[in-house]
Amino acid sequence: MFPRSRCAQAPWSLALLLCLLLSFCTCIAAQEPPRRRLVPGVGFSLAHDYGTASVHHANSTVANVVKIEGSPAYKQFMRGHSAASPHPQSALCPRLIASIPLLDAICQPSQLPSSGVDAAKPMVRALKASVEAYLGTTFCFADVAIPATLSADQNAAIRDALAADGLQTALPNPINAALAAAVANGIETDDERVLLAVDYSRSGLAAVLFTQELGVFDELRHDAWPELGDDSAPQDPRHWDLVSAALANFLRESDRRAGVDDLVSYGDRAEEKQFRDALRDVLGKAQGQAEAVMFDPIFASAAGVADASFNVMDDPGFSKKPFWSCGWRSALYRDSSEAEL
């Protein structure tokens, strides 16, 4: 029997050495923290009369990008009314009416309901265009804050409007505008606290009551008074008394008047002095504490949902990919190691 040559053993030794080296490198790579995506979070807030957009950057700065007034169709849709578009009248109608007056009713332009998606799409498109101009590139994810009073059909129409413009959401669903405003105001404590969020806008008054502990919010109750918006204030001398009474009754029925720990106010009329006075009458000290940390009330909901969107996308476990038709056009998704725009 002939002894095995050392030259014959060399390839096996080299292969073993390479395997050990590869295993070592794999272990080192596994210990390295995952790279952050550095993609900014984009938040839209769709209020009853207007929409806002904010961007949350990786360095925790927030840019409030734009506020856009809604069209009549958008305002009807957000209030739960069916928007309508006139059906054009036939050119023959004027001649027929002249000879047969009974045809007058038949020839009147009919009102054909348009879908909620059609009403929401122009607002979504305008907000998206403003954010793209701010970022200098397109983006593929945006999350939305909406009033608590919107129906499931309205929610679905808003999601469809986003998808129609090539946008996906990082969050599973649109979030309550009151909750988003609380996030923007940094309401987060270790102990359980009761939070009252009040929206005062041209279109109405709304209130949501939460409990909050360790950043987890549970809604206790919400209500809305569309007849108590700021647009009605000049016409009704009792307006501010009615606002105070509505909020006091809301808390009394919730058995929480003496137990509100934090207050967040938001909406396009939340900085009205008379509104602040009404809150002070109802809540006393809690209102004064909240004033010192109040985020811009017009953009609070958009900023809060942008914050939530960024944190979800920044998680290493987030695996949702942008639509191909969007991703290839954007500088944000080509290399996750790129510095954020």
From TrEMBL:
Domain of life: Eukaryota
One Pfam assignment: HSP70
InterPro entries: Hsp_70_fam
Molecular function in Gene Ontology: ATP binding; ATP-dependent protein folding chaperone
Signal sequence residues: 1-30
The keyword Nucleotide-binding belongs to this UniProt entry's keyword annotation: yes
Protein name in the entry: Heat shock protein 70
Annotated organism of origin: Macrophomina phaseolina (strain MS6) (Charcoal rot fungus)
Organism ancestry: Eukaryota, Fungi, Dikarya, Ascomycota, Pezizomycotina
